[in-house]
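Holo prediction — phosphoenolpyruvate.
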Amino acid sequence: AARPPRELETVLGWADTLRKLGVRANADTGRDARTAVELGAEGIGLCRTEHQFLGERLPLIRRVILAADPEAERRALDALAEAQREDFRELLRGTGSRPVTVRLLDAPMHEFLPAPGRAGDAEAEERAEELREANPMLGVRGVRLALLHDRLYPAQAEALFGAWLDVRAEGVEPELEVMIPLVSLPEELTAAARQVRAAAEAVAARAGIDVSAVPYRIGSMVETPRAALLAGELARTAQFLSFGTNDLTQLTYGFSRDDVERRVLEPYVAGGLLAASPFERLDADGVGALIEIAVQRARAVRPDIKLGLCGEHGGDPASIELCDRLGLDYVSCSPGRVPVARLAAAQATCAAQEGRTP
Ligand code: PEP
Ligand code: MG
């Protein structure tokens, strides 16, 4: 039902023959993935797994984070992995035999901690208290959490590879891309990659197949300025990189991405200091310059590295034009913006050929 009207499909088809830039979608569920594919997405560029644990499934993560001992953690992880295998099966069925980037958990801790006084017992309360942070967006997020709970990413990765086995039996053959979030040190990536590889080995061994038969790549988000500057080092481990321009913008400017209407930005835009919010339009001189450095450094080390962008900018035409100019392989945006992204990518290619800006 998401399919555009036939006339628009025709125009989008023309755009597809022109554009260089790939267009994928951000989707967390099988349903979103199906919508994205109907709208012309060539794959899923970002599945935010933490979104699969909001609402009533929140205890699945909370039990891992607040586990009293290794045995309680193991039980909590088993429950989490079982739920994830089902989530991933649905996602892979919705995506079909296309690339799908699954990002391992990037939970800012505060979203998963109980309110003070609601942890259950005094010990859990104490553990929760220890984990509370003044700046959770700069705290134990993403890969940092995985290094504290070193069974967490393996549990997710095993669920993903297990789901791949399940859908393969149905004739669906997705290309898996396992993505590590909020990396700022190459060592974080190598540690997480080791966990993912071990998970692939374990699943393959249990299924009696060679691990080389599991089609997966490991990659890193580039969403801290340090990761952008060290993209060459990351590329020694990463087979793909994806620019997370929401965090990269936040961390480059030091503007909070979360504050309602980003009031701090208003005077800048109203006073003409900034033409647009950098969260909406990729900033060519700042965030864009970091991306350009990262692209050069990553390709110098691994010329065939796949490079994408999955922040909100991936659906903004002016930002798409910049992505084309920087030579990225694809952008990934919310499913509803896929048709516009296809058109904008084609416009960018035409403009570049004619030596003008669109
Ligand atoms: C980003 O930071 O741009 C990104 C895609 O990740 P998230 O929005 O989930 O932090
Ligand atoms: Mg991010």
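READOUT: The CA atoms of residues 68 and 358 lie 57 Å apart.
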